Amino acid sequence: MYKNQQPSWSLSKHRMLMECELKWVLNYYVAKWGETNSKSITLQLAWRLKHLKNMYMLFGELMHQIIESEIKTLLETGEVLSEAKIKKLLRDMLNRNYSQTKYGLNLWYKEPRVNPMIFEIYYGGNLDKTLIQIIAKKIDECVSGFIQSKTINEVIAKRNVKIVEAEKYKSFYLDGVRVVLSADLVYLDQNNDIYGIVDWKSGKRSKDDSLQLTTYALYLEKTYGADLSDIELSNEYLEEGINKNYTVDTYDFENLKSIIQASSKRMTELEENLRYPDDKILSTFQKTENERVCEWCNFKAICSDELRNTHMNNFLKDKGRKH
Ligand code: SF4
Q1: In which domain of life is the source organism classified (predicted)?
Q2: Which residues line ligand 1 (CB under 6 A)?
Q3: Same domain, 92 and 45
Q4: Least enclosed by CB within 10 Å: which of 78, 216, 298, 302?
Q5: Do 241 and 144 meet the contact criterion of CB atoms below 8 Å apart?
Q6: Share of the chain above pLDDT 70, in %
């Protein structure tokens, strides 16, 4: 039986809710229940599907890991960044994920948290040539963008900054709602007590980018008592090689607060449906009518009438082999 939890909100959770309520409940609640073999085969497959990553997500995740470690090394040792070394590392990591995915369907079925599965391979059998070319171009452009970024060359190299926190996930409370965020780089300029937050973007610009930075600013204000005039917020669009600074004002704060309030209220209402028996829950959530969202949805294997039988049978066949 589902028990009410303390309301928690994040921008990614909100975005997914706006895309599709069914996808949201699968991703943030129901898929987790399928971790155990006592649950229905649909939920067990949903648990695996939750861990699929498409090539753009995988690229972004690996790029962020490398950036984090390179900045740490740069600050600790002063070692100059090597563009060639980072590009090679990124290519090697992507190739490793590709090989593990291509020949590791049964391992992914067994433990999806440690064995990768690439969305395009799971649903399409392989990566097409155009996608491979796009990713190769992204490696070149994003790594160059990082090396030449304003954050590296004008903030880290020239100013007296220290990294404020090591933990990736941070949170603060707003009217009883726990707001969770994951900021890439939080620093303090020790010469003038200015706080800065940088978000590295390996994809295109989005209409939510400024909302994300406003969440960060609110976090700095609530957690460190930072004044709005002492906060620097920037997005580094790596592919374009552009740094964009944002200034947040009280109107942005009020706008964000009302979004969080309305969105977390809707989430709490929808959570009530989790009290239904497992086999009824999914039918109580709205499906999107936006085909583009479905095309890229991890859960289409259990949601789409055309795909369900094949994917369930493949999974069952694999389970049969082991028992
Ligand atoms: S496939 Fe479409 S309708 Fe189904 S959960 Fe995903 S986004 Fe929603």
Answers
A1: Bacteria
A2: 20, 22-23, 287-288, 293-294, 297, 299-300, 303
A3: yes
A4: 78
A5: yes
A6: 97
Taking CA atoms only, the protein residue closest to ligand 1 atom 2 is 294
d(CA 210, CA 188): 21
CA–CA separation, 86 and 67 (whole Å): 9
Handedness of CA 250, 256, 257, 259 (dihedral sign): positive
178 plus 297 within the same structural domain: no
pTM as predicted = 0.93
CA of 294 to the centre of ligand 1 (A): 5
Which of 18, 26, 300 maximizes ligand 1 atoms within 8 Å of its Cβ, making it the mutation to test the pocket?
300
pLDDT averaged per 10 residues, the chain (length 323)? 75 97 97 93 97 98 94 86 94 97 95 97 96 98 97 92 78 94 92 94 94 95 91 96 94 96 96 92 96 98 95 91 53
Which of 27, 299, 307 for a ligand 1 pocket mutation test, highest count of atoms within 8 Å of Cβ? Answer: 299
Class of residue 315 by CB neighbours under 10 A (exposed 0-12, middle 13-18, buried 19+): buried
> 118 and 232 share a domain?
no
Say whether both 218 and 115 belong to one domain.
no
Is 282 contained in some domain?
no
* Ligand 1 pocket mutation, candidates 24, 288, 290, 292, criterion most atoms within 8 A of CB: 288
State whether 245 and 297 are in the same domain: no
Q: Residue 229's domain spans which residues?
A: 154-266
Structural domains in the chain (count): 2
pLDDT in tens, 193-236: 999 999 999 999 999 999 999 999 999 999 999 999 999 999 99
Say if residue 240 is in the same domain as residue 208: yes
Q: What does 239-290 look like in DSSP terms, one character per residue? A: TTTEEEEE---HHHHHHHHHHHHHHHHHHHHHHGGGGS-HHHHGGGSPPP--
- Nearest CA, atom 3, ligand 1: 287
Do residues 181 and 224 share a domain?
Answer: yes
